[in-house]
Design goal:
The chain has about 425 residues and is an alpha/beta fold. Helices cover about 50% and strands about 15% of the residues. It folds into two domains: about 200 residues, Periplasmic binding protein-like II (D-Maltodextrin-Binding Protein, domain 2); about 200 residues, D-Maltodextrin-Binding Protein, domain 2. Strand 4 and strand 5 form a beta hairpin.
Length: about 425
């Protein structure tokens, strides 16, 4: 997205705030909330609608402020905060909550959390991001696995292919897809999509222990090691399997390429399945899901959560509490994630209602956690701060899109870039 276009979208969203607020005057002003979020793709919008419907059924108003991506959302949020009128509720990645807690901007949800027994029923990996200094400041919507390989089942069956479990198998499958006139790998030339693919290659080349050292621990020796250079080398090989029109493509458009059989595979998170559910496609019939090559034992995750900016209006505070309770209600969690294609953020939701891929994701999360191989994803702002994540994604994206850049140069640029961030 160009800066001019992104600036236009920010201005349009800020203007829409005024219009939407006026349009919902039928609900008492002190019972409605402005909700800023980035769930705008078809399946995402359907999922957010589950929360909205349950919330408005309680007599509250929802002023919808959808942003086209996290960059636009963050620009709008910063503008609103600077102007002294932050939205009442904001959806963000869980790792981004802390920066607003540090500024003293968020509502303490501890009374709601205690009442709802969040310590016991919330997925354990989320608690460190949302419970800070002994208090809860965010309510999660979902847990999503980012390291998934999605493939067109009918194309694979026709060509006698199986989902690849190793990088060598991936290359063999990709070559056969190419020979059959099918684009092997659907991707959008957007930094976070490329970074998601890169993370899976990192796990495949270096293994989970290397991911822990290089990514979770941010060990400089690991980041500048020969292993990391090999990761970039292998990542370069992936580029030959994408089509020339990939730059700037939205992730859901890439998903449709797999759904229609134009492409054979896509490496991205659970949310891809949400688009397939929306299109009434069935797992193991129309599409398949599997860990990417070399990722069977590793679970990379992202989660999103609603946070609530402080208000001096007691009625608005009551509405914020109601939205927090609604979001984490077991039935709402299940309904949301059935639409979203992900897994609930609660551990007490009946997984039998989930489809094959969602159950596989849920089981993979539990298994990986028990072996110490469940990790946060950088590509979705879970492992590193937004500033460091931005450097990582920009280096990875530049490398993927510029064939002249060497793996050594990419590693040096990454290591040196991270040194400029003081945290």
């Amino acid at each position: 997205m160009t800066n001019n276009w992104q600036g236009y979208m920010v201005r349009a969203l800020l203007a829409a705030t005024v219009l939407c607020t006026a349009a919902t005057a039928s609900v008492a002003d002190d019972k409605k909330l402005e909700v800023l979020h980035f769930f705008t793709a078809g399946s995402e919008a359907a999922a957010i609608g589950v929360i909205k419907d349950a919330f408005t059924a309680k007599g509250y108003g929802w002023v919808d402020l959808p942003a086209t991506g996290t960059d636009t959302l963050n620009q709008v949020l910063r503008s609103r905060v600077t102007a002294g009128s932050p939205p009442n509720a904001v959806l963000m990645h869980s790792n981004e909550v802390k920066q607003w807690v540090d500024q003293g901007a968020l509502v303490d949800l501890s009374p709601i959390a205690t009442k709802g027994n969040w310590d016991e029923v919330m997925s354990k990996g989320l608690i460190p991001h949302l419970k800070l200094n002994g208090a809860y400041y965010g309510v999660p919507t979902t847990v999503e696995r980012t390291n998934w390989l999605w493939y067109n089942k009918k194309v694979f069956d026709k060509l006698g292919l199986q989902p690849p479990t190793t990088l060598d198998e991936f290359h063999a499958v990709a070559d056969k897809l190419t020979a059959a006139g099918v684009i092997p790998l659907a991707i959008g030339g957007v930094n976070w999509q490329e970074a998601t693919l890169f993370e899976t290659v990192l796990v495949a080349v270096g293994g989970p222990d290397f991911y822990r050292k290089a990514i979770v621990e941010q060990n400089e020796e690991a980041l500048k090691s020969d292993t990391m250079i090999k990761v970039f080398d292998e990542f370069r090989n992936m580029n030959k399997y994408v089509d020339p029109n990939y730059p700037g493509r939205d992730w859901n458009i890439a998903a449709k390429m797999v759904m229609t059989g134009e492409a054979g595979m896509q490496v991205l998170g659970d949310y891809v399945k949400g688009e397939m559910v929306l299109a009434n496609l069935k797992p193991n019939a129309d599409y398949g899901c599997a860990p990417p090559p070399g990722n069977a034992q590793t679970y990379l995750s992202v989660s999103t959560a609603f946070v609530f900016f402080k208000s001096k209006n007691a009625s608005v505070e009551a509405a914020q509490d109601a939205l927090a309770e609604t979001t984490f209600d077991p039935k709402v969690q299940l309904g949301f994630n059935l639409k979203k294609g992900a897994t609930p953020a609660r551990t007490d939701v009946d997984s039998a209602a989930l489809d094959f891929c969602a159950q596989a994701s849920y089981k993979a999360q539990v298994d990986a956690a028990s072996h110490g191989q469940a990790f946060p994803a950088i590509s979705h702002f879970e492992a590193w701060s937004p500033a460091k994540s931005g450097i990582f994604m920009d280096v990875v994206s530049t490398f993927f899109e510029q064939p002249s850049m060497t793996s050594k140069a990419a590693v040096d640029q990454l290591v040196n870039g991270l040194k400029t961030i003081s945290e």
